[in-house]
């Protein structure tokens, strides 16, 4: 069985994430969407809320599981028996950053591979940080979020 | 059965290609390495030679097949029952180009997905065009080529 | 009266061009869509055909004119009394190229300014060269073209 | 009357900003240079000082107004009756960032357009953050600042 | 005598730094590896430790000296009689950042030149920030560090 | 004696080249400006003319020599006893291209190093290809050329 991990902060999950995860799920037998928890980082939404949203968004697909972990991503991959990480790329800034991380994970993870999907054009401007920026300014971010993510 | 296509000119196949293809083959049940033939383009090596090299390099892996096609890559994917294209990314110039092609193939191919692997750091400077440049200047390109590709 | 020039090859005009030109037209009193003719370059469609398409697409907007010119773009701008060039940017590769051209036009044109619009996300993967590639492979490019551009 | 907004922190205004703003002012009937105030961000110079500098630099041009606002830029644009935002681009890192912001503003602002000017080559290395870095190290930044911005 | 300065935080020195510094040392009569101390920045390793590591790594090469400084890099260069700064480039993100800094140092330093070396492919994924990230997650970073840098 | 080679087509030499070469010459005891001749490439100016211009521009500096070569650049470097290649970088597109070439030359040249200088901001828009484009359109390129390069 081919298992892959899609790691992220998902603070909050966006329509961009949802599309990438559904597309990636078609390539593997199981895809684990995993929230990486960094105790030194501040999040806008707490872990419990972010998990609930992920579970609601992917409730319709049995091949997608939701999880969370602390520490290195590659360690989590080993624990769940996965040799593959999936990440999305929106633009060339993403690429340079993700390239370094993937090459590092390959070393640390003793062969763990990262595969990339490119964001759909119509979703390539969406990011969690832009959603947070809108919310901080009391704007309406619903057009950038899955319908299950309701922020009031 | 999950089948993917790794398309390219392979004029000639490099060590960079070989590494990407072997890594991609682990993710799918079958990987078809497919030479796209463009009748208006000039190649340094003829099709027969390029096929022979691909077959020699991957003779040890039953999950990797060699093929060639004319016309759109997505049409070939449909013929062989594949919904996935695999491509490598070396740097951000590659990324911008491949992004456009993958978004186009998604439209033309009615949902065909492209997944990307990033070149290993130690192979990221290798390309067929650089190999051809060395050969045209009577240099020795063997350090950039699989051992089965012997050019005299 | 503020007049701007949107230069290009338009071989053929795409939905990406159409969107950029309509958006730019809102900023100026008159926008001249101008086909730059380079006698040493080969085009897929002849000049007459490209002009007809441009005229058909923008027939509904009196503030948009269609024209063509040979030689330097800045010379054409002066002839038509325009101090502004408009161009679209899809990605960072476009940017580096357009930056150089705009800085050059500023010098050659004795102060002619270039302003840029960024392609809409859902159109950012469209280019004339990709349309031509599809057509050469007998594919259907109609999803990337204005409805007035019918290629059989 | 065509009104545009040039938003920024201007902490402090640089010669790069001044040049972009004067060039942009030629394209519109009125250009509002607007300091966006983010209460969670720390600035090196207080708002009053930054406004004074902007007013001094553009005292000679009646078509340029100085203002400030809190919250989303697109909300400010609506308040002042502007449908256009103007921003400068120095390099491809700027581009990727500004592209996302402009696409977002287009959604949030119900059609608000952002147009971009590219920095002149001789000013493309100047940024407020570099000016601040020099000042923090007790260096002389006057070569990067309009003559009205005197920092002692 | 041609003296160059290789400035950095070296928090900690990586194998990537070591390779760049040894390569740069061949081009000059003396190369000063200089730790820039910014009192407002937090470091993972204290200055004393970082100096010790640098001295240990380059103990075998008399043309390489270790130093540290506060304030502007160009001021330090003048103090030690150097007209040249050396920096490494790993990718295009590095490039845009370093370009700005080098153009600034040229102005502030009254002609001080920065020359760049590109990281070797097999080391281009290594950075101090990635090393620190591994260490914070209790991972083993020794593959990315010179053998003299032992972190327990 | 430290000898470096600055290779290029110089078709024709621009003010950008001149500045880079003079800056590089300060770092080495001798700098050889070398025209690489590729018999399959068409040039706008013949070799004799390009050599004359280079000799005229650098007639005032004894540490700069002019030469030409066929074949691999690293082979020429060995012939003239140089271990260093110098190249200029204008933007991130240049960077990705030059990075690949330099890594290749390091392999082919058994240790030959390439060092890079970044173009001055005010010259970063200049390239030989843009000069040729102006000349083909009967424009005046003299602002982009050393005063010794007179094209009528």
Would you give an account of this structure?
Six copies of one chain form a homohexamer. Helices cover 36% and strands 22% of the residues of chain A. Chain A is α/β, with parallel strands linked by helices. The first copy, chain A, has a five-stranded parallel beta sheet with strand order 3-2-1-4-5, with helices on both faces. In chain A, helix 2 links the parallel strand 2 (30-37) and strand 3. The model of chain A has no long low-confidence stretch (mean pLDDT 93). Chains in contact: A-B, A-C, A-D, A-E, B-C, B-E, B-F, C-D, C-F, D-E, D-F, E-F. The interface between A and B is medium-sized, with 23 and 23 residues.
Summary of the model, kept short:
6 copies of one chain form a homohexamer. Chain A is of the alpha/beta class and 152 residues long. Chain A has helices spanning 15-25, 47-57, 73-79, 92-108, 128-136; strands at residues 3-8, 30-37, 64-70, 84-89, 113-118.
Q: Could you name the key traits of this structure?
A:
homohexamer, 152 residues, Rossmann fold, five-stranded parallel beta sheet, globular
What's the topology here?
The structure is a homohexamer of 152-residue chains.
Chain A: E1 3-8, H1 15-25, E2 30-37, H2 47-57, E3 64-70, H3 73-79, E4 84-89, H4 92-108, E5 113-118, H5 128-136
Parallel strand pairs in A: 1-2, 1-4, 2-3, 4-5
The name of the CATH topology of chain A is Rossmann fold
CATH class descriptor of chain A: Alpha Beta
Determine the CATH superfamily of chain A.
Answer: HUPs
Largest interface, with Cβ-Cβ < 8 Å? A-B, 23 and 23 residues
Order of helices and strands of chain A: EHEHEHEHEH
Portion in beta strands of chain A: 15-25%
Shape of chain A: globular
Structural class of chain A: alpha/beta
Number of helices of chain A: 5
Count every beta strand of chain A, where a strand is a DSSP E run of 2 or more residues.
5
**Main pleated sheet of chain A:** 5 strands, parallel
User: In percent, how helical is the residue content of chain A?
Assistant: 25-40%
Oligomerization category of the chains in this entry: homohexamer
Domain unit count of chain A: 1
The first-to-last residue Cα distance of chain A is: 40 Å
């Amino acid at each position: 069985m081919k298992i892959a991990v899609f790691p992220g902060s998902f603070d909050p999950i966006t329509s961009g994430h949802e599309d990438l995860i559904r597309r990636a799920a078609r390539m593997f037998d199981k895809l684990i969407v995993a929230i990486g928890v960094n105790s030194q980082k501040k999040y806008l939404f707490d872990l419990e809320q972010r998990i609930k949203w992920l579970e609601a968004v992917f409730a319709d697909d049995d091949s997608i599981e939701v999880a969370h972990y602390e520490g290195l991503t590659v360690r989590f991959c080993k624990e769940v028996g996965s040799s593959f990480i999936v990440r999305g790329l929106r633009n060339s800034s993403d690429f340079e950053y993700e390239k370094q991380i993937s090459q590092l994970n390959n070393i640390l993870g003793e062969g763990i591979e990262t595969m990339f999907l490119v964001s759909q054009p119509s979703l390539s401007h969406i990011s969690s940080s832009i959603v947070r920026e809108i919310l901080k300014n009391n704007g309406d971010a619903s057009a950038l979020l899955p319908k299950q993510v309701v922020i009031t």
